Amino acid sequence: MKQEADTMQFDELLTEQRNHRSTHIDRESTLEMVATINREDHRVARAVQKELPQIAAAIDAAYPKFDQGGRLIYVGAGTSGRLGVMDATEIQPTYGLTAEQTFGLIAGGEPALTHTVKAAEDSIELAQEDLAAVQLTAQDIVVASAASGQTPYTVAALQYAQEKGALGIGFSCVEDSPLAQLADYPITPVVGPEVITGATLLKAGTAEKMVLNMLSTGIMVKSGKVYQNLMINVVPTNGKTFERAKKIIAEATQTSLLAAERALERANNHVPLAIVLIETKGTIAEAKALLAATNGHVSQAVKLNDKQH
Predict the structure, then answer these.
(1) What per-residue confidence (pLDDT) applies to 273?
(2) DSSP string, 264-297
(3) Which of 14, 55, 122, 218 sits most deeply, having the most CB atoms within 10 A of its CB?
(4) pTM score, two decimals?
(5) What is the dihedral of CA 173, 209, 146, 123, to 10 degrees?
(6) What angle, 0 to 180 degrees and rounded to 10, lies between the N-to-C axes of helices 284-293 and 271-280?
(7) What is the CB neighbour count within 10 angstroms for residue 59?
(8) Which conformational region is residue 96 in: left (phi greater than 0), alpha (psi within -120 to 50 degrees), or beta?
């Protein structure tokens, strides 16, 4: 097992230092103030850009596990935990996932989503209990986030994940933090001191949102939840979603809405199957066989059909 780094004193952390570029923000006009914040936000994008190779490597390690039934689990405390829960919650309807396939664990549980539960983020035992309760396995992916990289709950959760053989991705904004040293794939955009000293809901929070967006989107694309740049796992359950599904099929296959509707009916409202049916010009049985052979990946199914013909 990897060894943790020595925990830095809290006031020594880069995320807790004063930002000399915003020292007089309280004296600025409103326009000057938001311009100062905006300039700092530009630094966030550059910091994340430097981590793109690590983000890509994490996606490449994660998606085969997810593709084979592993779960995407987010862990964190405070702002970091809330952002993880939000990402998991949002990608469920976007990519047709269940709450069992992806979810977030936050120190202090559901009450911590709307209230500060300070003691919870210091609890090593609580982290272990939360992951034990979801029966973590080596097939799972754990994305642990903490701006400082040393929140006890989050570090303990990642260590527990390592012990279970799960894939550990660690997000932090401090280099060589305990979280970064534990992670299989540390992602560490160094955004620097915050506009308001110590307010890591600002640049660190923005960086985490950007990174989580990339991770989850990348894993979903690589797992076949996207065809071209379209969300194809929409489930038509009412008039609105049925119309959306028809539009997606029509755009993906460059066909008419009427043809898309007919294919959707033949496919029993299964959008990926309807797309493969149109793209390959085959039978329902042939389209189903292609999807089965490619584990539901529409792009791969279409390519496989092209090779066979």
Answers:
(1) 96
(2) HHHTTT-HHHHHHHHHHT--HHHHHHHHHHTTT-
(3) 55
(4) 0.89
(5) 170
(6) 110
(7) 22
(8) left
Mean pLDDT of the 161-175 span? 96
- Residue 53, CA atoms < 13 Å, CB-side half-sphere: 1
Average pLDDT over residues 233-252: 90
Residues of the chain with pLDDT > 70: what percent? 96
- Mean pLDDT is lowest, of 8-17, 186-195, 204-213, 294-303, for 8-17
As a dihedral over the C-alpha atoms of residue 91, residue 94, residue 97, residue 99, rounded to 10 degrees, the angle is 50
The amino acid at 265: E
Place of tokens 């160094």: 190
Catalogue the active-site residues. 90, 121
Q: How far is CA 299 from CA 65, 131, 228, in A?
A: 19, 35, 8
Contacts of 206 (CB under 8 A, 6+ apart): 41, 44, 191
**How are the residues of the chain apportioned to helix, strand and coil, as percentages rounded to the nearest 5?**
60, 10, 35
What are the tokens at 269? 């409202």
The residue among 146, 136, 195, 200 whose CA lies nearest residue 170 is 146
The 10 Å CB-count burial string (b at 16+, else e) for 294-305 is bebbbbebbebb
Total residues found in the chain within this entry? 309
Tally the C-alpha atoms within 13 A of residue 307's C-alpha that lie toward its C-beta.
Answer: 7
The label of the residue with tokens 């994305």 reads 143
Residue 116, amino acid: T
Provide φ and ψ at 24, rounded to 5°: -110, 30
